[in-house]
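Entry for flavin-adenine dinucleotide complex. Fields follow.
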Amino acid sequence: MFIRRLPVFVYHTPASVGEALDLMAKHGDKGRYIAGGTDLLIAMKKREAMPEHLIGLSGVASLKGIASDDSGVRIGSLTTLAEIERSGIIGEQYLPLKDAVDVMGSIQVRNLATIGGNLCSAVPSADTAPPLIALNASLKLVGPEGERTVPVETFFTGPKESVRKPQEILVEIAIPKPDPASSGCYLKLMRRHAMDLALVGVAACLTLDSGTLVCKEARFALGAVAPTPIRLPEVEAQLVDKAINENVAAEAARIAGMQCRPITDIRASLDYRCGMVEIFTRRAVMGALRRITA
Ligand SMILES: Cc1cc2nc3c(=O)[nH]c(=O)nc-3n(C[C@H](O)[C@H](O)[C@H](O)COP(=O)(O)OP(=O)(O)OC[C@H]3O[C@@H](n4cnc5c(N)ncnc54)[C@H](O)[C@@H]3O)c2cc1C
């Protein structure tokens, strides 16, 4: 499969978002944006995608980099997973995202793969999706009709499907500044320790009342156990207004195990995934608590 040649295509190198949009308008359904190519080129080798014009975004400087201010952090869609892994601000304040990129692919993959490509591929197991949902992130999309912002939790509509129109470019990911009394974590179940897709991905973010340590706000998301990454408000409701402990986490975990909608496939059965959602939810909630109180 992997020794198949790529189909013939023309590679375009726009230097700005405007140029990239013009190229896409010109080539229509024969065109496709490409970032690191770690998903798209494999799909092309498998003949699952056959674009005749690849519009490379890697020369568009405005799509790259990580910037932070009082409102939070903005990550350009062409920022690589390796750059996010090395970022001081992500490692200090946005730990669930750091947890996710740390366990994605290999060093070589992380040097090429971008956060925007991970989200735009929209596979149910995309590792950056659950932490970004738990961190309340939103996406800026730019297309021929202008600009719009979409919360990550409403971006995905089905396996490999999203609200992004084919002409639209994902420009940046914005994450609000977290409360000082909050933290979170992302845990990923894999069959091996590296280079594997998630069988289950669990992200939890908690904000505690700094005086009483009671949970003021909880955001919780799962990956790889439904047709899209999902947020589970029922789990969050179980955590809010409670002092977080093993019993509270166990009840939240029981709810998560009932609410997820995995399938049985070649990689894991439905029952196994539900059981592991429960175990990983309890660990993620207690992990977030430990990070806040540490
Ligand atoms: C060996 C290997 C291991 C992997 N391991 C993991 C893993 O552990 N976890 C995981 O989640 N994924 C994994 N992946 C999948 C892949 O590496 C990631 O999804 C990666 O982040 C995709 O980014 P990219 O820049 O390579 O996307 P590309 O392949 O360039 O693009 C993917 C899709 O997104 C579109 N696109 C890209 N950028 C934009 C943009 N800015 N605006 C609009 N559309 C855009 C493209 O048109 C294409 O449809 C792995 C892949 C490989 C080959």
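NOTE: Residues 68 and 170 are 19 Å apart (CA to CA).
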